[in-house]
Design a protein that fits this description.
This protein is α/β, with parallel strands linked by helices and 238 residues long. It folds into two domains: 99 residues, Elongation Factor Tu (Ef-tu), domain 3; 121 residues, 3-Layer(aba) Sandwich (Rossmann fold). The chain is 22% helix and 32% strand. It is built from five helices and eleven strands. The strands form two sheets. It has a six-stranded antiparallel beta sheet with strand order 4-3-6-1-2-5, with no helix packed on it. A five-stranded parallel beta sheet has the order 9-8-7-10-11, sandwiched between helices. It starts with a strand and ends in a 7-residue tail after the last helix. InterPro entries: FAD-bd_FR_type, FNR_nucleotide-bd, Riboflavin_synthase-like_b-brl. This is Ferredoxin--NADP+ reductase. GO terms for molecular function: oxidoreductase activity.
Length: 238
């Protein structure tokens, strides 16, 4: 396993609780849209075993042509050891990244693509939207639906409706409106539905989509292959 130590070159305050840490790109480090990486803080590998409290699984919110690895995360006042340390870091400090992989690259199958996310989960979809804007081949349209109860919506410069690009963006701040809209979107029985958020959020979305007749193969999750069967075999008897 290759571990890349890289410096923070910029810290962006996206909203009062959400920050993007822009990291220098190591020379041979590559990734694609929808990628995640493991981000680790100094000291994580000092002992015989890695200190897991200093490691987090993070989505990359940028594309390679932006010449920086963007890690966008929410840091609340009361937070974990990892985020407490992360909040104290400054430009020039180093972090480690390793085990980079994409579970949700943009599928180009001449279908409509729906991006369903909760809060900072939108960071996973930022590169997919940018990739679509750069090249819309074999994607009929893209629709983003994000729920964030804080009402401090993210990346509104990118996630804004652009009819000429066949792109629509929708933000809601409550579950009722969100799930009603998911049901409306699921009237497209041939669409591809990408879902990013907490495990509870995934289960709830899958439940709604399957009940609306969407097939498991149309639902894309940021999960490894072996985890997909667990999430996509939701018990609908409740």
């Amino acid at each position: 396993m290759q571990i890349y130590w890289t410096k923070i070159n910029k810290i962006i305050e996206e909203t009062p609780e959400v920050y993007t840490f822009m990291l220098d790109c190591p020379e041979d480090f590559t990734w694609e849209e929808g990628s995640h990486t493991h981000m680790a803080l100094e000291g994580f590998n000092f002992g015989e075993k890695p200190n897991r409290s200093l490691i987090r699984h993070m989505s990359i919110s940028t594309l390679p042509h932006e010449n920086a690895i963007g890690i966008t995360t929410r840091i609340r006042e009361q937070c974990s050891e990892f985020k407490t340390i992360l909040r104290s870091l400054e430009v020039g400090n180093e972090v480690a990244i390793f085990k980079t992989h994409s579970n949700v690259p943009l599928k180009r199958e001449d279908k409509n693509v729906y991006l369903l996310s909760s809060g900072v989960g939108l960071a996973t979809f930022r590169p997919l939207a940018l990739d679509y804007f750069d090249r819309a081949d074999k994607v009929n349209l893209m629709h983003s639906l994000n729920i964030d109860s804080s009402k401090d919506f993210l990346f509104t410069d990118i996630f804004e409706t652009a009819p000429d690009k066949k792109f629509t963006a929708q933000f809601v701040d409550n579950r009722n409106d969100y799930y009603e809209e998911v049901k409306n979107l699921a009237s497209d029985k041939g669409g591809l539905f990408y879902v990013v958020g907490s495990d509870e959020f995934l289960v709830q979305n899958i439940d709604v989509l399957l009940k609306q007749g969407i097939k498991p193969g149309q639902i894309m999750l940021d999960k490894r292959e072996q985890q997909l069967s667990t999430f996509l075999s939701v018990d609908l008897s409740n």
